[in-house]
Amino acid sequence: LHLRMKYPTDFQFDYEDEDEAEEEMYRTHLRKLYQRIVRFRPQLVLQFIGSCLSSLSQPLSATSPTEIEVALRLVFHFGEGRRPAPGAKTALRDGPFREIVIALHRSDL
Running DSSP on this structure, what letter comes out for residue 16? Predict the structure, then answer.
């Protein structure tokens, strides 16, 4: 899932381009799938996020933008996927998720 969420290096965010519009629809499908998994297995997804973040090169400022972007999207969509709404507030009550958010804020990004 982590690897499939990365945008191709030649992606230009041109939604009028048919191929790129299809790519964006694919990303939407992956996001919805990920959020369903978050709702049913949030602790497992937190482990997955932790694994993805720990695999990034250090310092984070030296990591490729596509790697950072997908990792941040995983964190963001985790908050969106939590229930009850608003999910981000619910997720921030969770100690491990709160620690991930704090660590990202303290990083050199």
Answer: T
Rg for the chain, CA atoms, rounded? 15
Predicted TM-score (pTM) of this structure: 0.80
Question: Which amino acid is residue 36, in one-letter code?
Answer: R
What is the helix (H) or strand (E) element at residue 22, kind and residue range?
helix 18-40
Type of residue numbered 35: Q
Q: Is the omega angle on the peptide bond into residue 59 within 30 degrees of 0, that is, cis?
A: yes
d(C-alpha 31, C-alpha 1), whole Å? 9
Residues 92-103: tens digit of each pLDDT: 777 888 888 888
Only one residue has tokens 């996001």, namely 31
Query: What pLDDT score does 51 carry?
Result: 93
